[in-house]
Amino acid sequence: MLKSKYIAAFCIFFYITTNLFSQHEISKYEYRWAFFHPFAAKKVKNHLIEAMDIYQVVKNSRQLDSFESGGTLDAFRHTFTMAYLSRYVKISKLRKLGKAHEKGNEYYFYKNHQEFGERADSLACVMDLRNNELGFEIAKRNKMVSKDTLKIIVIEEIKAGNAWKLKKNTQNSYISCQNEPILIENYKGKWFIPKCLVKSNE
User: Fold this and answer.
1) What is the mean pLDDT of residues 48-52?
2) Domain containing 45: what range?
3) Is 182 domain-assigned?
4) Partner residues linked to 166 by β-bridges
5) Would 171 be classed as within a structural domain?
6) Predicted TM-score (pTM) of this structure
7) Arithmetic mean of pLDDT, 145-168
8) Mean pLDDT across 21-31
């Protein structure tokens, strides 16, 4: 009985993570999360498509930038998804899922896999985890609002500078905190790239 439950959890998690992240193969860290949280995994499966539908609406509306990696659109995806899923799954469990996913990003970085057209790096993972935390805080303050209202609140928080993004110049190229251009080709195989993590309204 118990074994069957965990096998089912693996199948469920394969489905939900493919829809949630759509970036790379599921890592051992994410499988481990599903193994220990099978019921939470099922709840995520049941509500994740709703969150991704809202994300697509915001993406198409161009209320934020168009960068699915490193920009305010990326910040929205993490912040809104965690805020929305917090209605159905305990924050402590979602926090562990977020950390497992970022560990998976590092694991697949060394296998040269990309995330939304770019290779993940250490600061991108820090950015994602911080935006996850913003989502949790928004969820605590707005438990009864509709999905559309929650979407508006998250966008307002991002525009107010309460989320995080990676700094770029006017040519939309990553730059350091000293405003120096970063030549990504010089950091091949390097997990740490000297990008600059800034507030989402900068």
Assistant:
1) 91
2) 2-163
3) no
4) 197
5) no
6) 0.88
7) 98
8) 69
For the stretch 96-138, pLDDT in tens is 999 999 998 888 888 877 666 677 899 999 999 999 999 999 9
Contacts of 178 (CB under 8 A, 6+ apart): none
Which residues lie below 8 Å from residue 44, measured CB to CB, with a gap of 6+?
16, 20, 85, 88, 89, 97
Q: How many distinct structural domains can be found in the chain?
A: 1
According to DSSP, the residues that pair with 157 across neighbouring strands are none
Residues 4 and 108: their CA atoms lie apart, in Å, by: 29
Question: Residue by residue, what is the 3-state secondary structure of 158-186?
Answer: HHCCCCEEECECCCCCEECCCCCECCHHH
User: Helix 28-36 vs helix 91-109: angle between axes, to the nearest 10 degrees?
Assistant: 160
Does 88 fall in a domain?
yes
Cβ neighbours of 47 (radius 10 Å): 16
Any alpha helices (H) in 62-90, and if so which ranges?
Answer: 72-85
- 134 lies in some domain: yes
